[in-house]
Amino acid sequence: MGILDNFEKGLERAVNGAFAKTFRSGLQPVEISAALKRELDTKAAVVSRERILVPNSFQVLLAPSDYQRMTAIGPALVDDLNQIVVQHAAQQGFQFAGGVTVDLVESPGLTTGVVQIDSANVQGQVSWMPVLDIAGTRHPLTKSRTVVGRGSDADITIDDTGTSRKHVEIIWDGQRAQARDLGSTNGSTLDGQPFQRANLEPDSVIKIGRTDIVFRIVPQSSASRGGRPASPSAPAAPGGFWR
């Protein structure tokens, strides 16, 4: 990074800080996504004609009030930020040294409305974990069969009187997922359509009673910050779902 780049980045921090102190309106998710894109553009390093390397590990530093507001949105926000990073890199022709991770970090020294990005290239393998997002809470699928329902004997208990004690079962074989209605009173829908047994694709939405259950496959990085590049691009999510 040149002297001019350092000057412009310092000026941007000063201006952002001044506006934040004046208005104290709080940070918006779109401002975080813009900051992540700027970080990619600023840190892009030309390795060769065919390869422009950018960081793949990001810590989003937030003031305590902004951190509380952003984390209250739930894990879907981090998923969206991760996707924005990957999409922007693809549009710009950037490549990653490994899997992309984005973490929200509380920073007491920051003023409300200010966001700072700490990025790094890391080495490590990325595994993929199936999860269910329910009412802002993320539930990893650690068993081959997971029962969701109102009863205390369900694997995931939800507070919804419109559901049965054991309402729906999620089946995961390590690569593929299915959902099965367990003879519930009010039935279940998958992406708006009633079902008894159906294949699950990432981001499928199961509705039981008044509750939405979102099935996702999310990356879990085993890398430590500051490592050397491991591969020219981020690995793809696993395929092979039931058709």
TrEMBL record:
The keyword Phosphoprotein applies. Residues 220-243 are annotated as: Disordered. CDD domains: FHA. Keywords: Phosphoprotein. PROSITE patterns: FHA_DOMAIN (PS50006). It comes from the Bacteria. Residues 221-243 have a biased composition (Low complexity). Residues 146-195 form the FHA domain. The keyword Phosphoprotein applies. It holds the Pfam family FhaA_N. PANTHER family: NUCLEAR INHIBITOR OF PROTEIN PHOSPHATASE-1. This is DUF3662 and FHA domain-containing protein.
